[in-house]
TrEMBL record:
Name of the featured protein: Chromosome partitioning protein
Similarity field: Belongs to the ParA family.
Its job: May play a role in septum formation.
UniProt xrefs under InterPro entries: AAA_dom, DNA_Partitioning_ATPase, P-loop_NTPase
Pfam families xrefs: AAA_31
Organism of provenance: Amycolatopsis thailandensis
Length: 309
């Protein structure tokens, strides 16, 4: 347990420090940030969240980063490109069969704006859901013209201007198939979650090779802009070893913030919520807010670099 601060008055409570009061203060700082809105990027940022390994915190990171940016005043769109529909579940978005979804967008039946739904968790948070129909989409896309470009065509500047979003997060399935290729062609940036566990870097080379192929043949603007370390357990030496190895290899691409292994983060989707809505005072929620702030700050730095180029 964290010890009480030496000055009880510093918590703002006349009755002194208690664990419940401490968590309430943290929750208030997440839901009602004193510093106000985060800075908008100089241009809309479209990030594909990809890792062909399952269970690395990919969908969890997608929805919680999006929610954190939305809480801090940035309009954010999540595109659920995983047939399992877990991002839609976490944002409490209707994704029953027959609901206008990313499947209908990919085959050209509806526009992205028509499929986007506003999440009740924030007025700035939108989601294009995935339904079970998406499960067969890879087979259907094979015979379509410009099959790798379907999502990029749907994510036109005109459509995104109509929705008015600052950030787009594309949650990919745990594979390197045609849906993931569509996501990489449609984005400018790739965000890779890496868990702080033994097999963290296994298969990462294959992912990076696929990104290079997409860069060479389909999307020259694509880059790995962000790596997020997830499921960090400070009780183990292994977590520190993996963290150091990833930072040594990828340098400043890795966010300073590390997402801890957290029961609250795991529980939240079961209630149709992000961890920011489920338990905003938890370590997991605070960590995702810190990571979102880093991402937003990088958007400003990108603006400054482009302005001086």
């Amino acid at each position: 347990m964290t010890p009480p601060p030496s000055d009880p008055a510093s918590t703002g409570h006349e009755l002194g420090w208690t664990p419940i009061a401490e968590e309430a203060v943290r929750a208030a700082s997440v839901l009602h940030p004193k510093e106000g809105a985060l800075p908008r990027p100089n241009r809309r940022r479209v990030l594909t969240v990809a890792n062909q390994k399952g269970g690395v915190g990919k969908t969890t990171s997608t929805v919680n980063l999006a929610a954190a940016l939305a809480v801090h005043g940035l309009k954010t769109l999540v595109i659920d490109l995983d047939p399992q529909g877990n991002a839609s579940t976490a944002l409490d978005i209707d994704h029953r069969s027959g609901t206008p979804s990313i499947y209908e967008v990919l085959i050209g039946e509806v526009s992205l704006a028509e499929a986007a739904q506003q999440s009740e968790q924030s007025s700035n948070l939108y989601c294009v859901p995935a339904t079970i129909d998406l499960a067969g989409a890879e087979i259907e896309l094979v015979s379509m013209a410009s099959r790798e470009m379907r999502l990029k065509e749907a994510l036109s500047s005109e459509i995104l201007d109509e929705i008015g979003v600052d950030y787009v997060f594309i949650d990919c399935p745990p594979s390197l198939g045609l849906l993931t290729v569509n996501a990489m062609v449609a984005a400018q940036e790739v965000l890779i979650p890496i868990q702080c566990e033994y097999y963290a870097l296994e298969g990462l080379g294959q992912l990076l090779s696929n990104i290079e192929l997409v860069q060479a043949h389909l999307n020259r603007e694509l880059s790995v802009s962000t790596i997020l370390l997830t499921m960090y357990d400070g009780r183990t030496k292994l977590a520190d070893q993996v963290t150091n190895e990833v930072r040594n290899h990828f340098g400043d691409t890795v966010l300073k913030t590390v997402i801890p292994r957290s029961v609250k983060v795991s529980e939240a989707p079961g209630y149709g919520q992000t961890v920011l809505a489920y338990d905003p005072g938890s370590r997991g929620a605070m960590s995702y807010v810190d990571a979102a702030k880093e991402i937003a700050q990088r958007g400003v730095e990108m603006k400054e670099r482009s302005g001086t180029a």
